[in-house]
Amino acid sequence: MTAHPIEVGPKDARYDALRRGFNQRWIADPAYVVVATSADDVVKAVGKFVADPANSQRRITVRSGGHCYENFVSSANVGVIIDVSQMNRVYYDPEMSAYCIEAGATNWHSTTQLYRSTGLALPGGSCYSVGLGGHVSGGGYGLLSRYFGLTVDYLHAVEVVTVADSRTPKKTVARKDSADEALRTSRRT
Ligand SMILES: Cc1cc2nc3c(=O)[nH]c(=O)nc-3n(C[C@H](O)[C@H](O)[C@H](O)COP(=O)(O)OP(=O)(O)OC[C@H]3O[C@@H](n4cnc5c(N)ncnc54)[C@H](O)[C@@H]3O)c2cc1C
């Protein structure tokens, strides 16, 4: 049985593929790459990273689709990469009354799964393998955007992992209709 979260270190055959993204110019030397399959995996990975004093000068980064042109994910000072590409489900969340597209889902997943099963579509970019984690947080612009706006305009809620006191990671759900302004995904201006 596989231990969770999955950690891929330098001796693992997968390491060389997982320490780089789409832009082959940037190749990191992390201690290991976490292949997260749930938000709880991310909490554990972040907790382990911040608990290790050896990481004080190194960054923890997250990758969804790996399409970053820059070295935001794979740079020289990266200690651990959290890869969430396995979190790629698309489903209806009755509690939110909204569709959930997990961060590791790509434009391909959102189009083929969301549209075919519901008739709905996001105005996402035309590159099929861009991940929603980076795409939505960057705005997201595609063929439907002149009419329907950016991908991020359709963001209702996000589940994020933060570190409150430099050592304790926690999951928080921020949503557009939260009564608490600090937990709203969009602020009134
Ligand atoms: C070939 C190509 C075509 C493209 N076409 C388009 C297009 O048509 N329209 C458009 O708008 N953009 C386009 N882009 C740009 C693309 O939307 C951005 O590069 C986007 O940030 C990539 O997201 P990713 O998850 O694939 O990349 P990643 O490399 O995984 O992540 C990009 C950034 O987002 C952060 N990030 C990723 N996942 C998460 C997460 N779960 N939580 C928090 N932060 C996260 C990363 O740390 C990094 O800083 C294109 C890029 C490429 C390479």
UniProtKB/TrEMBL annotation:
Assigned keywords, A-Z: FAD, Flavoprotein, Oxidoreductase
Alphabetical list of SUPFAM superfamilies matching this protein: FAD-binding/transporter-associated domain-like
Co-factor(s): FAD
Keyword presence, Amino-acid biosynthesis: no
Stated family: Belongs to the oxygen-dependent FAD-linked oxidoreductase family.
Domain FAD-binding PCMH-type positions: 26-189
Protein name: FAD-binding PCMH-type domain-containing protein
GO molecular function terms attached to this record: FAD binding; oxidoreductase activity
InterPro entries: FAD-bd_PCMH, FAD-bd_PCMH-like_sf, FAD-bd_PCMH_sub2, FAD-linked_Oxidoreductase, Oxid_FAD_bind_N
